[in-house]
Each structure stands twice: as C-alpha cells, then as structure tokens.
Amino acid sequence: MPKISVVAKDGASFEIQAEPGTSVMENAVRNSVPGIEAECAGACACATCHVYVDEAWQEKVGSPGPIEADMLDFAHDVRHASRLSCQITVSDALDGLIVRVPERQS
Ligand code: FES
Q: Ligand 1 in contact with 29 (CB < 6 A)?
C-alpha cells in the first residue's frame, strides 16, 4: 500500500498507509489529522479539506479540475500548490506523497 504523509500545521507528520482508490482526505480524516475538516465529506463542495502539495509531488498530483478550482476560490491562503485533498486519489504512483495542512481552512 502506498504511504502518504500529511503534515499538520504544528509540523506533526502523520505517516499513513493509504488504500489505493481512496482520497487523501479520507485517509487524513481516518487518521484524525487536525485541520482537515472535510465538511462536505468529499463532494468537492466545501473547500475545508485544502492542502498544499509538496513541491516534489506537484507534477505527479497534477492541477485541480475546473470544479475544484472554483471551490478553491473559497479556501484560505490559496497557493500554486493548493489542492482539495478529497480530489486527490491515492495510487501506487503517489507512494511517498507529502501534503501539508494550511494554517486554517476557509
Ligand atoms: Fe469538501 Fe473536499 S471535503 S471539498
């Protein structure tokens, strides 16, 4: 199973064995990572699962789709590396992925 790292805003790193096909958000919530609120439970309708993708992984993870990009307008402190973690699907290709939780959600 791919391992992903979700770094909380206090710097604590949660190393998670993630099931391929699940979202980064689902894995963060299941492992009680603070700061991932995921109010819409993955429907791409809340922007409270915002994360920053580590620079080394941005190309592999890719850019947000149009609906996700619209929702990111509601997120706090959006950057080039911003993604909604419910829209990142774990796969073997993402083994080693690192994402960081922002200072606060929207
Ligand atoms: Fe609501 Fe990701 S959980 S947009």
A: no
Over the stretch 32-72, which tens digit does the pLDDT of each residue have?
A: 999 999 999 999 999 999 999 999 999 999 999 999 999 99
**The Cα angle at residue 13 between residues 24 and 11, in degrees rounded to 5:** 115
- The amino acid at 38: A
16 part of a folded domain: yes
Complete DSSP assignment for 78-92: --TTEEEGGG-B--G
Task: Among 6, 24, 30, 40, say which to mutate for ligand 1: greatest number of ligand atoms within 8 Å of CB.
Answer: 40
Local structure of residue 57 (DSSP, 8 states): G
Count the domains in the chain.
Answer: 1
pTM value surpassing 0.90: yes
Residue 54 within any structural domain of the chain = yes
**Cα 10 to middle of ligand 1, angstroms:** 22
Q: How far is the CA of 27 from the centre of ligand 1 (A)?
A: 13
CB 9 within 8 A of CB 103: yes
